[in-house]
Amino acid sequence: MALDQAEIDRRSASTVGSMRNFIDGDWRESDGGGQIEVISPGSGQQIGTIIDSSEADISAAIAAARRSFVAGHWSRMAPQQRKAILFKLAELIDRDALDLAVLGVRDNGTEIGMAIAAEPGSAAATFRFYGEALDKVNGDITPTAPEILSLIHREPVGVVGAIVPWNFPLMIGAWKVAPALAAGNSVVLKPSEAASLTLLRLAELAAEAGVPAGVFNVVTGQGATAGQTIGLSNDVDVLTFTGSGIVGRHLLRYAADSNFKAVHLELGGKSPNIVFEDCGDLEEVARQSARAAFANSGQVCVSGSRLLVQESIREPFLAALAKAADGTVVGDPLRLDSHVGAIGTKAQLEKNVRAVEQARVAGDTIVTGGEQIAGDGYFFRPTVIAAGSEDSPVVREEVFGPVLSVQSFRDEDEAVRLANDSHYGLASGVWSQNISRAHRMVRRLQAGVVHVNCYGGADITAPLVGTKQSGNGFDRSLAAIEKYQKRKTAWIRLG
Ligand code: NAD
């Protein structure tokens, strides 16, 4: 989509006001909850409020979801009709793409050029993908003795609770909501308190598309209250989550303390991006590696935040990388000339500052960046840190910011050892013109995705899998529909 600055500016002046929850097909005031200020990270200014939901608000949403599921207006709707509604929703997202992108950028600070594709663009594609898929997922007949007919039905699980983070709310929200709805479930979604606006708008669009009341509910609020109520509910059948490991552990405990609901976790990463001496155009690989680390200010789960470069090219590569980092224009996320926007929240900005301080203390070398950019908004310079040791915190811990650690390796074996020496295993990248080496690396790396001679860009057709402590589940791909289905056996004796 060609973007026009005047169109963006016109939309960014609109007021947000006091947003309510979307429950049972309508906007609802809170029952005993409070409000949360919506602070725009690009300006540091308040642009509106969302509801800090009470337990009663969340319970009302879960009850509405259950009622709608039992009523069957969606769960038993003919698949072709459900498909038409999901297609319509994709169309409405496309219609309002720029509105959604600008609203989202005001909420979470992602640069608009990235947001337009990654948020409404990807959400529309996701609803289309699962809409197309939903009548192509069949049950089974198992081989049995002649007097038996054994049918395996696939049924929706019931009520799906979805809890998502702030970095790409629409994209990640759609990765969960679309397959859950495609399978015939009802959904209660809690966005991050730091980025709820576009998902509230998505609920409104779903109703406009024809999703029946109660089938898709969006409730805002804090994790420890609203999120916990969803997690502990005996009336939520499956929990699907993207966020930090610490919260993922809470969710597993909630499941154990309630109804043993299945919990699908997509968590953090510290993903190695490995550059071999035969990578090809060194300047270009450095530019793309900088983008892999600094796009959306590094607030990308699969961000290539741990660079491993072969010793023989370390110095020229570091120089090219620093040049790319320094040439990255960080600024107002709503300006088309900004390459990179704002850090999502003040707390996250402070985390970046602390990570650099920690690196200095650990004896690492700040190659470039390392500072907050002065002003009202939350901006941080793209930062490259040469790690002094394999145990430096900047190598081990996810910063979730524009902070890239660099280590070097001598040969393939050492690259593999360093890359896999992490409790995370989400993504990775390999840059080499040697196809055999690239395939060997794909086999040896412990990660849910290995990018070869590129970084990022995998689409809805391919799963994003969390391995090790990056999660126990996956999003995307046809197979994701099964997360929201249960199997039922009909064992029939034939007369
Ligand atoms: P977070 O874990 O702090 O919050 C995620 C969600 O959980 C929010 O909606 C929050 O309100 C909720 N929450 C917080 N405490 C809770 C509790 N006690 N009970 C229930 N819900 C609770 O994560 P974040 O800061 O929003 O996002 C950043 C993290 O997400 C990073 O670790 C990042 O790597 C990860 N992430 C992973 C992926 C992926 O696909 N693997 C994608 C994006 C982000």
Mean pLDDT across all residues, rounded? 98
Instruction: Tell me which CATH architecture of the largest domain applies here.
Output: 3-Layer(aba) Sandwich
Helix content: 25-40%
Structural class by SSE content: alpha/beta
Strand ordering within the main sheet: 15-18-19-14-13-21-22
Number of helices: 15
Provide the CATH top-level class of the largest domain.
Alpha Beta
**Which fold name is given in CATH as the topology of the largest domain?**
Aldehyde Dehydrogenase, Chain A, domain 1
Secondary-structure topology with pairs:
Layout: H1 5-12, E1 17-18, E2 21-23, E3 26-28, E4 34-40, E5 45-52, H2 55-71, H3 79-95, H4 97-108, H5 112-133, E6 140-142, E7 148-156, E8 159-163, H6 169-182, E9 186-190, H7 197-209, E10 216-218, H8 223-232, E11 238-242, H9 245-257, E12 262-266, E13 272-275, H10 282-294, E14 306-310, H11 314-326, H12 346-362, E15 365-368, E16 372-373, E17 379-380, E18 383-386, H13 393-396, E19 403-409, H14 412-420, E20 424-425, E21 427-431, H15 435-444, E22 449-452, E23 464-465, E24 467-468, E25 474-475, E26 485-493
Parallel strand pairs: 1-5, 8-9, 8-11, 9-10, 11-12, 13-14, 13-21, 14-19, 18-19, 21-22
Antiparallel strand pairs: 2-3, 4-5, 6-7, 7-26, 15-18, 16-17, 20-24, 23-25
Helix pairs in contact: 1-4, 2-8, 3-5, 3-7, 4-5, 5-6, 10-11
